[in-house]
Amino acid sequence: MPILLPMLWIALHLPQLPLDAALRCRLRHISCEPDPFADAPIVICERQVAGWCNQLAEDAGIRAGMSEASARALAAGLQTLQRDTGQEARALQEAALWCLHFTPHVVLKPDGLLLEISASLRLFGGHQRIATQLLGGLLELGLQARLASAATAGAAWLRAQSNGISKVFAHDGDINEALDPLPLHVLDSAQVHLETLDGIGCRRLGELRQLPRAGVARRFGQALLSELDRAYGTEAEAHLWFEAPVIFDVKLELPARVENTEALLFAARRLLLQLTGWLSARHAAVAGITLCLHHESSRQRDHRRTNVSIMLGMPSRDIDHLALLLRERMAQLELIAPVIEISLKAEQITAQAAPNTELFPTPTSDAENTGRLVERLQSRLGHEAVRQLSVFADHRPEKSILSSVLSTHQNPRRNSSDEAVDTHPPCLRPAWLLPQPLALNTHQHKPFYQSPLTLLTGPERIESGWWDDALATRDYFIAQNEQHLLLWIFRLRTTSTVSGSGWFLHGLFA
Known about the structure:
Elements lengths: L8 E5 L3 H7 L18 E4 L4 E4 L1 H5 L8 H7 L4 E4 L2 H15 L6 E4 L2 E5 L4 H4 L2 H14 L5 E5 L2 H8 L14 H5 L14 H6 L5 H5 L3 H8 L1 H11 L16 E10 L2 H21 L2 E12 L9 E12 L2 H13 L7 E13 L11 H19 L5 E5 L9 E5 L26 E12 L2 E3 L5 E11 L7 E9 L5 E7 L10 E6 L2
Parallel strand pairs: 2-4
Antiparallel strand pairs: 1-6, 1-7, 2-3, 5-6, 8-11, 9-10, 9-11, 12-13, 14-15, 14-19, 16-17, 17-18, 18-19
Helix pairs in contact: 1-4, 4-13, 7-12, 11-12, 13-14, 14-15
Protein name: Y-family DNA polymerase
Keywords: DNA damage
Organism: Herminiimonas glaciei
């Protein structure tokens, strides 16, 4: 019989969602132009009625429900914005994609989100760390949230809407103790009955539960009791889970013309937050991303754009790693025109299991670290600057090692042509070959390098290269001078076309 784990819900209430959605794209980090909304009282209006105010507007005496004309009379420099529900929906979807980092069970509310995280506690180090990361990510998205938890989704949501809760996390202990002190205004079904309930001395959830249920249902409706029962866990809850889009191709319209890449990185990180959450929900990683910069048109129908593509050596969904690679690429980019919109597209999606929290490094983790180093070098120096050595089937030492551009999908520790290469005979080879063999003199019929050389091993005869008109006929020796330096030297078997002694230094042993 399966064991049912107790559920733990986290509620994220966004009380200022219309205001946050309107202002989050106007942050000074995105645009270098002066912000007309900086240090000004701001009100979001709906049907000429003030609904949501910033702190400066509240300090001026403006309150929700006040007419727009009355609000302007209280603050001469008041900035009014009309509510945009589509903008709020996009902000909520971005927040939901970020929450998918921690659990696939995310529920969208009109002004917030619900997350079931009982199965994620051990992976992320407990509810406190999850809460800290959740709030930090929402702040990066320009959203301010009020967080609370409980054993039921309804209880967590009611607690998140209340300012007076003493414990943010209330998943342990009696749920009655966590909900009874809450004010009635947190119940949606009680909004139209608040004055009546207050008149009979009922101001808390605990006081409402003490009233006769039949009388409450007859006077205030069954919906009020159902919402209360779902919060206390006596009635089953049904949720519609948030589903991430099938493909990831997200755009972000900038509030003003952006002319430097540093400001674009701030906006691009918002897209990366959504991308990594989308990947986590699909248990996947990305092997390539493309950031498209849409430039301001110089003429009508002249839509110019710049594509910044990043290919990874190993698939990843680590936001810090992706942001670092993007920063390295953007540092080398010169904008051809101001940017007015950016978009991010995920390419080459591959399945990836959850990270293994092993105590000691494994070959997989070592390969991942090496791959990330290669990716960072390629982002900073360019793909052509990062090269690898590979073995080639040729007995001539100078032609047996090839240098080629390292592919982003190739493990730098593995030689792609190992299967086709014949191994050399078991003999010693120096770690350092000279770019060109150095001609040596002879003293008393002995090759000389800083002192007369003593031949230790050899000869190893190499006679190869007749097929490409670079015939090599050499006898190789390991020699030692009086300073005990080991050298790899050879003597030409035919010296008719070469002046000198015919001895050459080709390599040095470490």
